[in-house]
């Protein structure tokens, strides 16, 4: 193998896929990047066998097509120390290769590409969809924080993609809160769904965050492939039945609070300082025109309350929540005004952007109450 390449281009390609290099592994070959030279393109692959990232970069003066596995840590650390300049990569003998730059070179070991695990994507029966990159990135950003860390219920550790022609909904829940993001911009041929693990979702979002093109999605019951520009992400799906989120979305709640999102967010932050650290309980006392938020920790003689003027139509109501859940939900919305809808103190509250906001109808949050004295 031999080729010339810009050191900056090579470093960017390695960095783009490096998130798939495992921190610990029982298979040492996975600590390497797989280089595959194909004409004037170098394909770079990294994988932990659950998540695979692949990209390709243009190279000059390529030799014969060949593949080798090269050490990831040393390659990235070396290229980070070089100013942008042409470098030559070439194998020199059995088991070693050189990286040559303007006034120096290094010799590093390589390993046979045959030792690298075969990367399998979706099967022949795969379904297909496509998303604008900005929409897919936004949907992950709105939902991924609501995923859980559940060993017994792994389906809660990912984002459900519930797709049908005309409407796609991305849903995440940890059983205490639920977020649903709905878009009509995805292209789907038939009703289908899959659950993407939150780790893969975070990596995918970072990869497509600033892109303005389409992301192609190919998936079957076990694997999914996301293709964007020169990049590919292949990962294993979470297999299982996601909770029926439509059944838990409360309907026809008669008690309605409309309030400035940042005002409510900051008030909850201030009051929750005095909440019990184990429970994080706070209480909303609602009456027409006013919301009072209270918290206390009797063990440390702490207490706080704040009154906020608001639009509230409904019965006088006292309802408790865990403050981190409210902070998460409000902090991950972008609308100026939110609407909270309540049935009573025992049933879930619905949180949505106000009808005047562009996000209205796109974001829906559900927050379970807690019993407080």
UniProtKB/TrEMBL annotation:
What residues does the DNA polymerase III beta sliding clamp N-terminal domain cover? Answer: 1-119
Q: Where is the DNA polymerase III beta sliding clamp central domain?
A: 133-244
Any Pfam family matching the protein: DNA_pol3_beta
Q: What is this protein called?
A: Beta sliding clamp
Broad class of the protein's primary localization: cytoplasm
Instruction: Show the GO MF annotations.
Output: 3'-5' exonuclease activity; DNA binding; DNA-directed DNA polymerase activity
Domain (DNA polymerase III beta sliding clamp C-terminal) spans 246-358
Similarity-based family: Belongs to the beta sliding clamp family.
Gene Ontology annotations for the cellular component aspect, listed alphabetically: cytoplasm; DNA polymerase III complex
Q: Which PANTHER family match?
A: BETA SLIDING CLAMP, DNA POLYMERASE III SUBUNIT BETA
Q: State the compartments where it is located.
A: Cytoplasm
GO terms for biological process, alphabetical:
DNA strand elongation involved in DNA replication
Q: Which organism is it from?
A: Candidatus Cryptobacteroides avistercoris
Residue ranges annotated as coiled coil are none
Gene expressing this chain: dnaN
Keyword terms, alphabetized? Cytoplasm, DNA replication, DNA-binding, DNA-directed DNA polymerase, Nucleotidyltransferase, Transferase
**How does this protein assemble?**
Forms a ring-shaped head-to-tail homodimer around DNA.
**InterPro entries of this UniProt entry?**
DNA_clamp_sf (IPR046938), DNA_polIII_beta (IPR001001), DNA_polIII_beta_C (IPR022635), DNA_polIII_beta_cen (IPR022637), DNA_polIII_beta_N (IPR022634)
Q: Which NCBIfam families match?
A: dnan (TIGR00663)
Q: What does this protein do?
A: Confers DNA tethering and processivity to DNA polymerases and other proteins. Acts as a clamp, forming a ring around DNA (a reaction catalyzed by the clamp-loading complex) which diffuses in an ATP-independent manner freely and bidirectionally along dsDNA. Initially characterized for its ability to contact the catalytic subunit of DNA polymerase III (Pol III), a complex, multichain enzyme responsible for most of the replicative synthesis in bacteria; Pol III exhibits 3'-5' exonuclease proofreading activity.
């Amino acid at each position: 193998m031999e080729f010339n390449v810009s050191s900056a281009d090579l470093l960017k390609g390695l960095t783009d896929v490096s998130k798939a290099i495992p921190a610990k592994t029982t298979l040492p070959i996975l600590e390497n990047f797989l280089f595959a030279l194909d004409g004037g393109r170098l394909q770079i692959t990294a994988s932990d066998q659950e998540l695979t990232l692949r990209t390709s970069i243009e190279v000059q003066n390529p030799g014969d097509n060949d593949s080798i596995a090269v050490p990831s840590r040393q390659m990235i650390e070396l290229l980070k120390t070089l100013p942008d300049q042409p470098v030559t990569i070439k194998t020199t003998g059995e088991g070693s290769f050189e990286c040559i730059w303007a006034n120096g070179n290094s010799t590093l070991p390589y390993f046979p590409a045959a030792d690298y695990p075969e990367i399998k994507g979706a099967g022949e029966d795969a379904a297909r969809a496509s998303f604008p990159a900005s929409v897919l990135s936004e949907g992950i950003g709105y939902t991924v924080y609501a995923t859980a860390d559940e060993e017994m219920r792994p389906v809660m550790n990912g984002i459900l993609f519930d797709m049908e022609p005309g409407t796609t909904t991305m849903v995440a829940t940890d059983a205490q809160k639920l977020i649903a993001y709905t878009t009509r911009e995805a292209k789907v041929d038939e009703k289908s769904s899959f659950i993407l693990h939150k780790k893969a979702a975070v990596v995918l979002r970072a990869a497509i965050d600033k892109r303005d093109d389409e992301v192609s999605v190919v998936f079957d019951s076990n694997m999914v492939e996301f293709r964007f520009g020169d990049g590919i992400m292949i990962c294993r799906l979470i297999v299982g039945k996601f909770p029926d989120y439509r059944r838990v979305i409360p309907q026809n709640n008669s008690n309605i609070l409309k309030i400035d999102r940042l005002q409510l967010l900051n008030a909850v932050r201030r009051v929750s300082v005095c909440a019990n650290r184990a429970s994080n309980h706070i209480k909303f006392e609602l009456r027409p025109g006013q919301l009072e938020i209270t918290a206390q920790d009797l063990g440390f003689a702490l207490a706080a309350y704040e009154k906020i003027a608001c639009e509230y139509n409904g019965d006088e109501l006292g309802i408790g929540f865990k403050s981190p859940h409210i902070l998460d939900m409000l902090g991950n919305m972008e609308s100026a005004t939110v609407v909270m809808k309540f049935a009573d103190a025992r049933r879930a509250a619905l949180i949505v952007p106000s009808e005047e906001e562009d996000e209205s109808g796109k974001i829906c949050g559900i927050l379970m109450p807690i019993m407080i004295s």
